[in-house]
Description:
Helices cover 24% and strands 14% of the residues. The protein is α/β, with parallel strands linked by helices. A hairpin with a 2-residue loop joins β11 (326-329) and β12.
Amino acid sequence: MKGKNCLAVLAKRAFLIFLLIFISGCTLQTEEQITENGAVLSGGESSDGLDSGFGETPPQNGSQVVPAQNGVSGNSSETSGGADLQAQSDPAPNGVFESGSETSGGAGSQAQSNPPEIDYQKVKPYEVGRITVIMYHGVVDAEEAPDKYTRTVEEFKADLQTLYDEGFRLVSMRDYLDNNIKIEAGKSPVVLTFDDGLRTSFSLVKNEDGILVPRPDCAVDLINKFAELHPDFGKTAAFFINRDPFAGDASLAQSFAYLVENGYEIGNHTASHAAMDELDALQLQAEIGEVEKIIRENAPKGYECVALTYPFGIRPKEEFHSFALSGEFEGIKYNYAAAFREGQSVSPSAPNRNGFDVLNLPRVRGSDNEETDLGWTLRSFRDNPDLKYVSDGDPNKISVPEVYAENIDYASVSGKEVVVYELSG
Ligand SMILES: [Zn+2]
């Protein structure tokens, strides 16, 4: 506890210094148009400008240093596993550290919330760095002539292998949005999303014994098989559906049950795959509410959809934009944590990062033929590994190197401890 208090004091001091610099008009640029490797971002699906969300600018002022010992502070905080997304919007007082939430559990639970201490200089955690959310559609056979939206089975398997080999680990949409990243220290989270509810992403078919199983070589089947060989990769993905998803031999309830029981998630992609900029408030709520209703009526009891993806990457008109996240249709209210675009965007991809915009979260297309897609993104991480989110192994802590401390959105941090550490050399 002592270590943590000391850290909190230092951190508070650093934040005040930062605040002073900020107030005195010294502009610390937090986002830039150009990536560190010199590439200017372009592309992305929707017409509005993209790009900044990609730069990291170390502060010009060295005074915000918060020294952190390796393996800082015994952590007594405890998160409720599925911490509600609401938690994020509870501002912490004055951007000051929340040093852990109250411990309500007994001694037993404390033990399991203490992950092994890490060597910060080796692991270099950066928990407001870039998180890759990949947008896939179908996973097809090679002869089905894939376009830029589809992946062949072999390409998809290769993606999983590359991600695994390069230190990425699967996290669920919910955990991503909660910054509740429960992966090994030194690894980076990645979120897989599949739009349109295509049968090649998931459907259940009867095998020879009449048992419903994932269609061979659909995305779920491939992820399941990969996870069997590499259990530490994780096994999850989010499927964003329209009405009538997952053509196959199963009922909707059976399909949803399979997904939820096996760690997958169901998201909203509007009932008719609507171009949302053409809709008014009522139409938007009808498009979104219908899918919410389908999920509520068919998914296992208590399942909560947490996000929406914009069809075609097209967002609603500005005045109706909030209906992407909350509204009501036929007596059913929906309230989502985030809405995702198609392609990179102006918005950073990490929760608790300045500028994180839940209405405009970026995704990268699951392909390798143009700027900003998955292949391009992985290459840019190889060139600039310090840009990506690297986990400290403890979902209760947000660890960030001092040089990037300015990226932390302290006001959004709730119930977690922020650790700002100095990198030596
Ligand atoms: Zn779509």
